[in-house]
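step=encode ok
step=design start
structure_in=
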């Protein structure tokens, strides 16, 4: 077997054996099982560290996402109630302690009486981010434990 060498920014052939079939068999029957076993042992021996890393990585990502979550506004017309404006937020994090089946959260913004110009009302620009933050803080507060 030959060691990998760099030759003018191109890698030379990794394996030099009598036939490609022998190289393939060595990889499939020797290297892959050993590497998979060692990898599983590493995971088992470092499970707590890996889980802690994943928890904090996700938590930091969620906190950054909360600063300015993307949303879409729409007008909802119910049968008995007056039309309302709702913000739809894509949410892939825990919501009320669990992950949602549908990855969206709907946040009530107000009625068309409050915003007579509908989605073109200039007050929405100021009110929507504030109402979304209030709703997220109330329904799915940041959990650091």
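sequence_out=
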């Amino acid at each position: 077997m030959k060691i990998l060498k760099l030759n003018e920014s191109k890698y030379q052939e990794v394996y030099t054996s009598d036939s490609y079939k022998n190289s393939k068999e060595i990889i499939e029957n020797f290297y892959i099982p050993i590497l998979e076993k060692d990898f599983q042992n590493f995971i088992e021996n470092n499970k707590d560290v890996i889980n802690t890393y994943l928890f904090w990585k996700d938590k930091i990502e969620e906190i950054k996402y909360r600063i300015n979550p993307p949303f879409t506004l729409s007008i909802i017309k119910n049968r008995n109630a007056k039309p309302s404006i709702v913000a739809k937020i894509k949410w892939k994090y825990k919501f009320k302690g669990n992950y949602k089946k549908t990855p969206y959260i709907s946040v009530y913004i107000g009625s068309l009486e409050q915003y007579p110009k509908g989605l073109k009302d200039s007050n929405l620009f100021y009110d929507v981010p504030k109402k979304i933050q209030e709703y997220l803080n109330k329904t799915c507060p940041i959990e650091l434990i």
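step=design ok
step=annotate ok -> Residues 55 and 144 are 9 Å apart (CA to CA).
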